[in-house]
């Protein structure tokens, strides 16, 4: 007789969670997407944080040079792969930055022989008192006596030169070398990013405007356009005006007999891009003339520099920057100075752009309604 088997007990069912209502499910998925986007954005920024300044420089240069690039593109339509014109523009930008450095290097090599002679003479005989000490209006005798007592003998020159041979100076030189290498790498990355911005500028523009429209509505697009206009105005008001100041004052340096007028004019142009920075370069030129005994020429340089910088800072720059962005020059000045303090030279363009966006938002807020695009 076959054994009697008990029927198998059906497996216990696991209680399933009731499905969420559609609106709650959509809300939870939206929150998960936001968290994922924030996490990935933070991770991406952390990965790229050392290259963000280089990328920002590429964006600034692309915005500043876009009108010129657009004209060239209309004159010479791009081919199938659109590589030639972006490559030429990128190479031109690299040349603009590298050519002055090459000139500076050649000039430094020429001066190396004179510097070596000065070092050998200072180590052997000390450092003689400069001639301008004898022409000081007050304290000329005391200043000359102090110099002769402390610096105008062989032992003083040897002691002074030995201070530049300690480990701290060597360590500083190494740090400077590493910083130079890092800057070169970042500059190369900026050029690569600039090439792709030139090549794909339509895609970048359309995607940026679409993102601003979706995230912030018409106001976002207006803010983006205002920031772009601010960068254009800043380039015209700072870079071009600074270059003009450097050229004019370089001519003054040449006729006044300032040593190395070309290099000092280039330094003046760079310094003039920062408000009140040209005064430092002009003061250096005047002091060099005073040290050479040319007091009248130093006064001419100081007076010419005062006139040029006064006209540029009080008339030309406010018209160019404020006229483009409808931004009061006080806020332009604060944006430039605060931007330089926070971001370095990049702040010359970032600071005014942020101020322009804030002033636009403030005006719309105080008006009580949004203007339609």
Describe this structure in words.
- The longest helix has 42 residues, at 84-125.
- This protein folds into two domains: 51-199, no CATH class; 201-368, no CATH class.
- It has 13 helices and no strands.
- The protein is mainly α and 373 residues long.
- The mean pLDDT is 78.
Which descriptors would you attach to this protein?
2 domains; about 375 residues
The proportion of residues in beta strands is under 5%
Total count of domains: 2
What is the terminal separation in angstroms?
A: 93 Å
Number-wise, the strands total 0
> In this structure, how is the largest beta sheet organized?
none
Helix/strand/pairing class, anyone?
mainly alpha
Mean pLDDT: 78
Compact description:
The chain is mostly helical and 373 residues long. It is built from 13 helices and no strands. The chain starts with 21 loop residues before the first helix and ends in a 6-residue tail after the last helix.
Please specify the SSE layout and strand pairing.
Elements: H1 22-48, H2 52-75, H3 84-125, H4 140-150, H5 154-162, H6 167-199, H7 201-216, H8 218-256, H9 261-272, H10 278-291, H11 295-325, H12 329-343, H13 347-367
């Amino acid at each position: 007789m076959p054994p009697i088997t008990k029927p198998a007990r059906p497996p216990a069912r696991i209680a399933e969670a009731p499905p969420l209502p559609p609106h709650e499910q959509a809300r939870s998925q939206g929150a998960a997407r936001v968290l994922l986007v924030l996490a990935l954005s933070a991770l991406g920024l952390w990965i790229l944080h050392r290259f963000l300044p280089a990328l920002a420089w590429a964006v600034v240069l692309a915005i500043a040079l876009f009108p010129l690039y657009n004209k060239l593109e209309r004159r010479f339509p791009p081919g199938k792969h659109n590589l030639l014109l972006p490559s030429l523009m990128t190479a031109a930008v690299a040349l603009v930055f590298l050519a002055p450095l090459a000139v500076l290097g050649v000039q430094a090599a020429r001066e190396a022989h004179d510097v070596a002679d000065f070092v050998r003479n200072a180590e052997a005989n000390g450092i003689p008192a400069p001639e301008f000490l004898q022409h000081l209006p007050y304290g000329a005798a005391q200043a000359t006596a102090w110099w002769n007592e402390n610096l105008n003998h062989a032992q003083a020159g040897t002691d002074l030169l030995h201070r530049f041979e300690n480990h701290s100076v060597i360590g500083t030189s190494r740090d400077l070398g590493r910083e130079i290498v890092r800057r070169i790498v970042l500059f190369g990355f900026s050029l690569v990013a600039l090439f792709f911005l030139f090549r794909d500028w339509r895609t970048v523009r359309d995607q940026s405007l679409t993102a601003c429209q979706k995230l912030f509505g018409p106001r976002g697009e207006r803010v983006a356009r205002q920031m772009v206009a601010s960068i254009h105005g800043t380039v015209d008001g700072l870079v071009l005006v600074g270059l003009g100041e450097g050229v004019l004052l370089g001519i003054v340096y040449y006729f006044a007999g300032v040593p190395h007028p070309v290099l000092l004019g280039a330094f003046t142009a760079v310094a003039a891009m920062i408000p009140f920075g040209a005064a430092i370069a002009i003061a250096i030129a005047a002091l060099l003339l005073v040290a050479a005994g040319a007091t009248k020429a130093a006064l001419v340089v100081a007076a010419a520099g005062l006139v040029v910088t006064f006209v540029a800072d009080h008339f030309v720059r406010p018209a160019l920057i404020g006229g483009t962005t409808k931004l009061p020059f006080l806020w332009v000045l604060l944006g430039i100075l605060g931007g330089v303090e926070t971001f370095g030279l990049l702040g010359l363009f970032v600071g005014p752009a942020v101020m322009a966006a804030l002033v636009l938002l403030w005006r719309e807020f105080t008006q009580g309604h949004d203007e339609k695009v």
